[in-house]
Specification:
Largest sheet: 7 strands, mixed
Bound molecules: zinc ion
Shape: globular
Number of domains: 2
Order of helices and strands: HEHEHEEEEEEEEHEHEEEEHH
CATH architecture of the largest domain: 2-Layer Sandwich
Strand content: 35-45%
């Protein structure tokens, strides 16, 4: 009888352990914090067509990542999500913490991880910086999280002011963008590299936003000179996209070829 009891509790313990392992495994593989996952709300093509209605709250966005970029309802500034804090760069060029109840029409976020760290010891302009990172991307067929912390002798960014309905297209909206030239500033470039086949979903290539250490400078990156810094690259091979359940997004024509316009809108 005693032996039976011992066996029974062993079986029970083994069964509980098995359930525990299974539960942890399921959580580990299906949680939003899974490694190498990019979450995106809407598409940049919809933003191009003026779909500036908010789709989800900043609070909900933060549940999907602690790192990323995007914009706010009405195209109200450039978003930088860094170390779990969401900033809005306004048309004065400075970054302000955004409230969790605010809405975003377009954003891409992830839980940052680094698979490769590069040192940048020689000054590089933006095109040299892109070519340098290009050499260390093991394939051009997956996505990457890019984080560059350093000292910049020059950073050129832009931000846009809030629009009311009816919203213009992004191409028209950025005609009123504010462009900033920051000199000798310490800060971080936050963003992603997307493969060419994802152009329209997001921007193919590098899409980076800047935020200074003192939060007094930031915006969508147009150009820069990195003097010295650390480049961290995180491989991303999971993409989760959420599209609006109703509204303007459903009615807008997303079949038009906007590649040339996108390039003009997002680069210098
Ligand atoms: Zn941007």
């Amino acid at each position: 009888m005693k032996t039976f009891n011992i066996n029974f509790s062993r079986v029970k313990a083994a069964a509980m352990l098995a359930v525990f392992i299974l539960f942890t495994a399921v959580l580990g593989f299906s949680g939003t914090q899974e490694s190498g996952r990019i979450f995106q709300a809407s598409t940049i093509k919809a933003l191009m067509e003026g779909v500036f209605d908010g789709q989800l709250t900043i609070g909900d966005l933060k549940a999907e990542g602690d790192f990323g970029i995007g914009t706010f309802e009405g195209l109200d500034g450039e978003m930088v999500l860094l170390n779990g804090v969401c900033y809005r760069v306004k048309t004065d060029g400075a970054a302000y913490e955004a409230d969790d109840t605010e809405l975003t029409p377009f954003a891409a976020v992830s839980f940052f991880k680094s698979d490769n760290t590069l040192q940048a010891d020689e000054p590089m302009d933006y095109s040299q910086l892109q070519k340098y990172i290009d050499m260390y991307l093991p394939t051009k067929n997956i996505m990457y999280m890019i984080k560059i912390k350093g000292t910049f002798s020059h950073v050129k960014t832009r931000s846009v002011a809030k629009y009311e309905k009816p919203y213009p297209t992004l191409y028209r909206a950025v005609k009123n963008q504010k462009v900033f030239d920051f000199r000798d500033v310490k800060g971080t470039l936050v963003g992603f590299w997307f493969p060419k086949y994802m152009n329209g979903v997001n921007m193919a290539g590098y899409h980076l936003h800047f935020i200074s250490d003192d939060r007094k400078a930031g915006g969508h990156l147009l150009d820069c000179t990195l003097d010295k810094g650390v480049i961290e690259i995180g491989n991303a091979n999971i993409f989760h996209m959420e599209l609006p359940e109703e509204g303007h997004f459903w009615d807008v024509d997303l079949t038009k070829d906007k590649d040339a316009e996108l390039k003009k809108v997002e680069s210098k």
